[in-house]
Amino acid sequence: MGSLDIPPAHTPRWVVPAHSACLSIAFLLWSAAYVLMTRRALATRSYGMPLLALATNVAWEIVNLFYVCEMPLEQMGLALWLVLDVGLVYTTVRFGPDDWRASSGSPWVGRNIGRVLALLTAAGCVCHGGFSVWWLAVPGRGYGLADKTGKSWGGRDGFDTTEMAFWSSGVSQVVVSVGCLAMLLARGHSGGTGYAIWFCRALGTVVGPVLGYIPMWWYWPEAHGYVGSRLAVFLWGVAIACDLIYPFVLRSVRRSELVLPDGRLAAAGSSRKISPTALRDGKKTT
């Protein structure tokens, strides 16, 4: 989004392409994180992304693919993410029940994890979709009294999908970063996650939504003043802070976690046993 922007004369010509390049790099990094997360989840018989974070991400991708994005390359990227989401959804539904039973003492969520995920995703589509419809209902929507000249959507001038994506992805990113850190602390084991996964998603967050927008804010302030707003600093500051803390918590957790005979992981001192599912798959018992 934003690749068709026409900046004012005083803005260097490289700014919009640089913005698009940063978003492309972020796309590759997040794609790698999805693949690594699925592989790690299969290896540890767990899942790597919290339910709310996964639902929010999937909903964001659905809304932007089918309603907002106009460029074929952007649509292909979002379609690929939805394909990669299949692995995340599968491991969540497949292994989530045992994790919830062992780590949180909430067997109801575990027994109904597919329905819970579907409900959260539907709610996310309503929220993201409603926000997008509202944003694109009239020209000029955005932070403050910004000049949206050069921003377009659907062939109409004054519609800034770049800013819209900045806010909607910012909320989603906070949910992911806070959720992943909270899940690691709550479970006490690193099932479905690891250093490479953290590195890819954290770097993707910094390169795309943060570094990718700074030149736009600096050289095209009329339309991008929101990048330096208090709300923006809060959203992305919280996300980055959680991502910076994450590897230290992960290191502590991995030092103390237990590796069970079936490949799953458990918190130190856990009484977690081999699940009935693992027994059906022919795994050893403890």
From TrEMBL:
GO cellular component: membrane
UniProt KW keywords: Membrane, Transmembrane, Transmembrane helix
Spans through the membrane: 14-37, 49-67, 79-96, 116-137, 164-186, 198-219, 231-250
Location in or out of the cell: Membrane
Primary location class: membrane
UniProt family annotation: Belongs to the paxB family.
Record's protein name: Uncharacterized protein
